[in-house]
């Protein structure tokens, strides 16, 4: 009996997990501008997407119909009063542009979709989805920017280690009538928390997203209908410094100057619609009150937060609070020209980590090991007397004496302080700081803290994990895990270089190719689309693109290799997500930058400028940060020219895509000249290698299509030779060379060497880091021995194209550039000796793609899933067509599997959507 119940239960679980079988396709995951039910967007013709779910094979959408209605009732009655697309004959299920009535501010849009498939099936209507528009016209904002442009006696705004208390704002109001709907629009710089009647609104932290503040500031939108009440209401806002009020004032501390925008400020507007249809707005203005004398006595992203619970102000964001000691606010200057709706997701507490050990190293000094280097903060539990003060400090490593190793944090003080109010068990976590750490030092704790006294909060952008990946190789699995933790830890509304020291900047070069690898693991689409806007906003009037964006450090070095990320990532978003908008949006600015670099630095078609070289290539001795050996370095004009050429090929593609036809020929012609000059200058015709024959030089010549066809083999041979002999089968590149290393090795037939690099555990390698205790990726190959001045334990740049290679080559899941966004997929798993099994999945915009293969007793078994409305070219490793079966039967051309050709040890098939089980003996 029990068995039967379990079986029944299991089949029910299976049914729901696999989705309905049967014939009707189901529609799910409706998205508006790639978000689920977004509020307050300011795109007036947003793009709509849906996922078709069906376990049938070869499901292709033939037509769709979208309804958009201004009320839920209308939608339920199948009335598209805003837009009825009618039946559109099209297979487009991603990025269908809204083409209905013009949308005004604050409009509710309820929508649903149905589709017809090529085999004549009709789906039902999808579940309803929603979006709303924000404040679209500047005049919609009646609210004013408010703040206090001065410091208080207890603050130290000019100290190099700036210390500023959080600012608390409040306003009481009485709605006149019964409320039907209320929407809050808010921006608070650097960071805000919004409260209504004592409740925090939303689950975001460290909001809003960081921007080039003097150009563009984000606001967030919330539905607060349920938070308002009859009678008196109160709004409260807390402001922290974030990146608006600088973390370092000019002074003794050696840093590039941290950009300073001003004192914290905010704007807030609550738009109310009453049941009778009339409206009202509660807005920030000079009737609000402010204090900086609350419990957050200091906050600084580098140095930490200090919270004095004895200064709490119970009820401060509720009606009836006595704010007699609070000050009137000042009306202050608006921060930037544009106040726009934030589309990329805010940061959230995404995970928790429990401590694995706690040790009392010295009397009263406790060291917690969280077991994982991660980014965020800790939640503290403590019981003690009023005024007791607990101090928390954070580090990635320990010293030999088990105390924190803090040398690599440079000037960051990373110290959170909690002063107890003495009121039973107190719980606290900071709001306006974050740390990158594995170890926590606790001092001042009343009594002995146990393991559960602190708990880690993992904090990063609220984005879906889209990838899973595991193999039969332990080193690869560990490195993947380290990459996963490093990547999630370095999303802070912008991709940062590191999360722990006095830097944490959006360095462009670190992500040029990394972003592609990351995009398999996380849905980072909107974050990177936003970052491209940061980059454009930071472009100088002359056209220079900085190395860091937003420019919290202003570094305009006129480099090629770092700003190249601007174009490379726009291209990635197109290929991975099928989103051409970034290319369209930034085309003019990209072109301007290319022209600027050419005018200023191109001589005889050689781009002479480079700033960082092949940054952080493995140095010759263990304590060095950078190599001093000229034979290991790749020349700057070589890198500059190779990158310029590659970017010209991208510009040519972008020009075609955007219809800038006149530009196409110009980019192509310039490209041809650059290529000739490049080969004349850098190709050693006798030796058959480039520049000084570093693997990096030869890699780019091949990767970027610069090498004449008849020379490719020789050039590639030099990469192999150097890697195997001079570098003894180890990596020789820094972050630049690593961008194409694994893919060039594999593409030219030496996937075995790529595999060797990926599984090495001796220096230098990713495995070496793991072997030496890394649970993230280091900034330096020799991160355990190098000078601490530049030696972060959590930097993702050295991953290069490793994660891309994991997914595209080991799992064999790759977007086909012929139909971007995985509308067409190339499935081609690399076979190398020693690797017997890979299981991976990637959730594309069309739905999950899976690849699970295993080699056993000479048989290759491969299960794949191809989402509905896509198709794939599938490469099954086999010596001949006859050796391949699908679903245990010979392949006859039926069942949706069509043989195309034999190609380099693979039998190649075309398949439609569905699940397939291939085997080859
Ligand atoms: C370091 C950063 C970053 C790198 C630059 C050039 O300070 O950490 O990773 O891009 O230098």
Automatic annotation (TrEMBL):
Q: Give any single GO term for biological process.
A: carbohydrate metabolic process
Q: Which residues form the Bacterial alpha-L-rhamnosidase N-terminal domain?
A: 177-350
Entry EC number(s): 3.2.1.40
Give start and end of each Alpha-L-rhamnosidase concanavalin-like domain. 360-460
The family database entries (InterPro entries) matched by this protein are listed as:
6-hairpin_glycosidase_sf, 6hp_glycosidase-like_sf, Alpha_rhamnosid, Bac_rhamnosid6H, Bac_rhamnosid_C, Bac_rhamnosid_N, Ig-like_fold, Rhamnosid_concanavalin
Q: Which UniProt keywords apply?
A: Hydrolase, Signal
Superkingdom to which the source organism belongs: Bacteria
According to the record, the signal peptide region is 1-22
Please list the GO terms describing molecular function: alpha-L-rhamnosidase activity
Q: Which reaction does it catalyse?
A: Hydrolysis of terminal non-reducing alpha-L-rhamnose residues in alpha-L-rhamnosides
Q: Which residues form the Alpha-L-rhamnosidase C-terminal domain?
A: 812-888
**Which Pfam families does the record associate with it?**
Bac_rhamnosid (PF05592), Bac_rhamnosid6H (PF17389), Bac_rhamnosid_C (PF17390), Bac_rhamnosid_N (PF08531), Ig_Rha78A_N (PF25788)
Q: Top enzyme class of this protein? A: hydrolase
Task: Name all Alpha-L-rhamnosidase six-hairpin glycosidase domain ranges.
Answer: 465-810
Q: PANTHER family given for it?
A: ALPHA-RHAMNOSIDASE (EUROFUNG), ALPHA-RHAMNOSIDASE (EUROFUNG)-RELATED
Q: What is this protein called?
A: alpha-L-rhamnosidase
């Amino acid at each position: 009996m029990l068995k039967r119940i379990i079986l029944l239960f299991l089949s029910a679980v299976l049914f729901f997990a696999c989705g309905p079988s049967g014939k009707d396709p189901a529609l799910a995951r409706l998205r508006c501008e790639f978000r689920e039910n977004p509020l307050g967007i300011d795109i007036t013709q947003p793009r709509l997407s849906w996922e078709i779910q069906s376990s049938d094979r070869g499901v292709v959408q033939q037509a769709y119909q979208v309804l958009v209605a201004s009320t839920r009732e209308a939608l339920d009655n199948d009335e598209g009063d805003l837009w009825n697309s009618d039946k559109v004959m099209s297979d487009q299920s991603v990025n269908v542009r809204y083409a209905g009535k013009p949308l005004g501010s604050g409009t509710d849009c309820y929508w649903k979709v149905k589709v017809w498939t090529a085999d004549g099936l009709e789906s039902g209507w999808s579940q309803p989805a929603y979006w709303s528009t924000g404040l679209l016209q500047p005049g919609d904002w009646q609210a004013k920017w408010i703040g206090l442009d001065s410091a208080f006696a207890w603050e130290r705004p000019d100290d190099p280690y700036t210390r500023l208390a959080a600012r608390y704002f409040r306003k009481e109001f009485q709605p006149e009538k019964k409320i039907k709907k209320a929407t809050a629009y808010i921006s608070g710089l650097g960071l805000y928390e919004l409260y209504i009647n004592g409740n925090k609104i939303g689950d975001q932290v460290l909001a809003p997203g960081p921007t080039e503040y003097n150009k563009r500031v984000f606001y967030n939108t919330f539905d607060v209908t349920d938070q308002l009440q009859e009678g008196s209401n109160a709004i409260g806002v807390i402001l922290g410094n974030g990146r608006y009020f600088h973390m370092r004032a000019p002074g003794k501390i050696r840093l590039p100057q941290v950009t300073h925008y001003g004192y914290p400020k905010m704007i807030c507007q609550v738009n109310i619609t009453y049941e009778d249809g009339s409206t009202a707005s509660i807005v920030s203005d000079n009737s609000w009150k402010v204090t900086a004398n609350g419990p957050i006595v200091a906050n600084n992203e580098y140095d930490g937060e200090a919270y004095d619970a004895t200064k709490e102000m119970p009820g401060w964001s509720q009606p009836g609070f006595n704010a007699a000691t609070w000050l009137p606010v000042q009306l202050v200057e608006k921060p930037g020209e544009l106040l726009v709706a934030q589309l990329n997701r805010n940061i959230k507490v995404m995970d928790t980590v429990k401590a694995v050990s706690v040790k009392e190293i010295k009397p009263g000094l406790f060291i917690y090991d969280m077991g994982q280097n991660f980014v965020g903060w800790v939640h503290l539990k403590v019981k003690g007397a009023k005024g007791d003060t607990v101090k928390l400090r954070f580090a990635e490593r320990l010293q030999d004496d088990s105390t924190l190793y803090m040398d690599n944090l440079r000037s960051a003080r990373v110290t959170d302080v909690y002063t107890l109010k003495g009121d039973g068990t107190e719980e606290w976590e900071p709001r306006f700081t974050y740390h990158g750490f594995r170890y926590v030092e606790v001092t001042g704790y009343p009594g002995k803290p146990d393991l559960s006294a602190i708990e880690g909060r993992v904090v990063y952008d609220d984005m879906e994990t889209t990838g899973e990946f595991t193999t039969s190789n332990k080193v690869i699995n560990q490195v993947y895990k380290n990459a996963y933790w490093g990547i999630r830890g370095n999303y802070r509304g912008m991709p940062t270089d590191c999360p722990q020291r006095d830097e944490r900047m959006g360095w462009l070069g670190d992500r040029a190719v990394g972003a592609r690898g990351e995009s398999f693991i996380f849905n980072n689409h909107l974050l990177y689309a936003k970052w491209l806007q940061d980059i454009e906003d930071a472009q100088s009037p002359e056209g220079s693109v900085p190395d860091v964006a937003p420019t919290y450090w202003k570094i305009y070095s006129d480099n090629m290799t770092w700003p190249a990320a601007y174009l490379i990532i726009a291209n990635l978003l197109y290929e991975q997500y099928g989103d051409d908008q970034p290319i369209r949006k930034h085309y003019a600015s990209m072109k301007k930058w290319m022209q600027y670099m050419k005018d200023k630095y191109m001589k005889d078609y050689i781009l002479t400028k480079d700033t960082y070289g092949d940054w952080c290539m493995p140095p010759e001795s263990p304590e060095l940060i950078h190599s001093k050996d000229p034979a290991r370095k790749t020349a700057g004009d070589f890198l500059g020219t190779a990158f310029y050429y590659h970017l010209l090929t991208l510009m040519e593609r972008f020009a075609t895509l955007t219809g800038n036809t006149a530009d196409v020929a110009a980019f192509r012609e310039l490209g041809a000249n650059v290529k000739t000059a490049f080969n004349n200058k850098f190709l050693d015709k006798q030796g058959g290698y480039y520049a000084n024959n570093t693997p990096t030089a030869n890699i780019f010549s091949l990767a970027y299509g610069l090498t004449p066809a008849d020379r490719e083999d020789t050039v590639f041979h030099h990469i192999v030779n150097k890697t195997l002999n001079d570098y003894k089968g180890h990596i020789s590149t820094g972050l630049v060379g690593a961008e194409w290393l694994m893919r060039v090795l594999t593409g030219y037939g030496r996937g075995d060497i790529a595999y060797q690099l990926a599984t090495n555990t001796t220096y230098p390698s990713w495995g070496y880091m793991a072997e030496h205790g890394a649970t993230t990726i280091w900034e330096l190959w020799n991160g355990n021995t190098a000078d601490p001045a530049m030696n972060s334990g959590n930097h993702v740049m050295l991953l290069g194209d490793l994660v891309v290679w994991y997914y595209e080559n080991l799992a064999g899941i790759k977007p086909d550039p012929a139909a971007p966004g995985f509308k067409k997929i190339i499935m081609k798993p690399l076979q190398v000796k020693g690797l017997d099994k890979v299981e991976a999945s990637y959730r594309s915009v069309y739905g999950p793609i899976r690849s699970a293969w295993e080699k056993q007793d000479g048989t290759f078994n491969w299960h794949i899933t191809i989402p509905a409305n896509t198709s794939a070219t599938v490469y099954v490793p086999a010596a001949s067509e006859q050796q391949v079966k699908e679903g245990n039967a010979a392949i006859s051309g039926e069942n949706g599997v069509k043989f195309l050709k034999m190609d380099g040890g693979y039998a190649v098939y075309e398949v439609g959507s569905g699940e397939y089980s291939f085997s080859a003996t």
